[in-house]
Amino acid sequence: MDKEDSVVCKCHGVSGACTIKTCWQGLAPFRTVGDKLKQNYDGAMQVAFNKDGTGLRNTVRSKRSKRRASKEELIYLKSSPNLCQKPDGMVGRHCNSTSGGDNDCDNLCCGRGHETKLVTVKERCRCSFQWCCYVQCEECERQEYQSFCK
Questions:
Q1: By three-state DSSP, how is residue 31 classified?
Q2: Does residue 69 contact residue 45 with C-beta atoms inside 8 Å?
Q3: Is residue 113 left, alpha or beta, with left meaning phi > 0 and alpha meaning psi from -120 to 50?
Q4: For residue 20, how far is the Cα from the chain centroid?
Q5: Backbone phi, then psi, for 81, in 5-degree steps?
Q6: Cβ 109 vs Cβ 92: under 8 Å
Q7: Which structural domains are found in the chain, ordered by start?
Q8: pLDDT band at residue 142 under the 50/70/90 scheme
Q9: pTM
Q10: Are strands 114-130 and 94-95 parallel, antiparallel or unpaired?
Q11: pLDDT beyond 70 at 17
């Protein structure tokens, strides 16, 4: 990610002796990487093509936004649509009625409610390795309850 990445080393040798030491550039912890991506996502800059189509320009017009995006910043051409503003934007969308997280039905269904149905799920099962060289599976069906936005 940046200069904060650490060097990781490992010793090799008989009975723990460090006769050979191998080092490599380590990655930052997963949480640090995720936080940095979220920070970049939240600060992403909307851009558009120049009139001649040779480059990109910032679409926000103000004195403080005359800066150009650096190579490390996230940019986007179009804003994502707000599906909650469309009458049928969420209808039929799969959600989790018990998660309490981002995929929770209250979040994904924009407060319009959800319904739970018993559905048949097909999946691969009883798989076995066949000589040589592929895996053969049967197709099994099972019933499970799933929630969908109204």
A1: helix
A2: yes
A3: left
A4: 39
A5: -70, 145
A6: no
A7: 1-38 (no CATH), 43-80 (no CATH), 82-150 (3.30.2460.20)
A8: very high
A9: 0.49
A10: unpaired
A11: yes
